[in-house]
Specification:
By secondary structure, the protein is α/β, with parallel strands linked by helices. It contains eleven helices and ten strands. The relative contact order is 0.13.
Length: about 350
């Protein structure tokens, strides 16, 4: 009898503990829809991230609404590509989310960076040489020591981007400078895998109670992206070598990963509309290359690409690097990548 009286209160106490609500997941805020999608995959079953940029917004220039600023202010952790993509967001993160963990994904371990091409397009032959594997420690120091001898290649030549010390790569807030690097990192599914892993590691450190769930979700997401890459490869293999132009130079990571190269871009960036002289040159290049397609984007004025295509015989189709018309959530990122491949394949094959 005494034994029963001793165990019943203990059982009741354990039952009451089990009935307590689980700790809330961290407040996660992201910049663009593809990053939001990757974060949603990592958090699946635990919580949901919030996004600052709405579908269809151009990331290079955007004015946050009060509700979006409030999300940033409430953040425990912010996942964003970096100031190269959203320069306006750097000061906002510093001022509104000063207590949050800020994770610039261009600095994530395993993310491979590509330099911008000359004049914003073409010259992809040297992409392998330009790719820089960033195996950063938690403090995001560069893996290369910043001494003169460390910047020499096997022939004894110095890297033209050599710096005197590692602080030359960082701004006053300690962020890496990526001025020569293309920020459209998410368009390579291999970078998508690296971003999943970084998100899981950061969330696990912030929320140990759900660490196993974050890691398992990231591993499952990485396997899904592996299968996705195989499907994309099968699609682009059918049209590899056929000439096309893009609205702006945003697809180098996709092109490099799947060895399908654009002949050029109408605009240097979505923030730099082409002038009359550039449009004339692009028309000439389209005819010279025998371009089959020119691709417009939902975020940009389609008139420029259509104007450039006039008289070239090129078909006009849509490439969407941000998933403007896709439902937000874990499925957006893989759908975005596959849609790029299908749009390319359909237009270049004449479908």
């Amino acid at each position: 009898m005494k034994r029963r009286l001793f165990r019943l209160p203990l059982f009741a106490a354990l039952a009451s503990l089990a009935a307590l609500p689980a700790a809330a997941a961290p407040m996660v805020v992201t910049d663009i829809p593809p990053v939001h999608s990757l974060a949603a995959r990592v958090m699946q079953g635990v919580g949901e991230p919030a996004s600052i940029l709405p579908p269809g917004a151009t990331p290079h220039g955007y004015s946050m609404r009060p509700s979006e600023a409030a999300r940033l202010q409430a953040a425990d952790i912010v996942f964003w590509v970096g100031e190269g993509l959203t320069p306006w967001l750097e000061d906002a993160v510093e001022s509104l989310a000063a207590d949050a963990v800020s994770v610039e994904l261009m600095e994530a371990p395993g993310v491979a960076l590509l330099e911008f091409g000359e004049e914003g397009h073409g010259d992809h032959d040297d992409d392998h040489d330009r790719m820089e594997k960033h195996a950063h420690e938690d403090d995001h120091k560069e893996e290369h020591a910043h001494k003169d001898d460390d910047h020499k290649d096997e022939h004894g030549h110095k890297d033209e981007h050599a710096h005197k010390d590692e602080d030359d790569h960082k701004d006053e807030h300690g962020h890496e400078h990526h001025g020569d690097m293309d920020p459209h990192i998410w368009l390579d599914p291999a970078n998508g895998k690296a971003m999943l892993a970084e998100m899981a590691a950061r969330l696990a450190a912030l929320d140990p109670a759900n660490a196993d769930a974050y890691r398992a979700n990231a591993a499952a997401g990485a396997a899904e992206l592996g299968a996705l890459a195989a499907r994309v490869e099968a699609l682009v293999a059918l049209v590899r070598g056929k000439a096309f132009f893009t609205a702006h130079d945003a697809y180098r990571y996709f092109e490099h990963r799947f060895e399908i190269e654009s002949a050029g871009s109408v605009a240097l960036s979505d923030a730099t509309p082409p002038g009359p002289a550039r449009l004339d040159r692009i028309r000439s290049e389209m005819r010279e290359h025998g371009a089959l397609c020119v691709f417009i984007e939902p975020q940009l004025d389609p008139k420029l690409a259509r104007t450039a295509a006039e008289g070239s015989g090129a078909r006009v189709a849509v490439l969407d690097p941000l998933g403007a018309d896709l439902e937000a959530g874990p499925g957006l990122y893989p759908a975005l990548i596959e849609n790029l491949a299908r749009s390319l394949a359909d237009c270049l094959a004449g479908s």
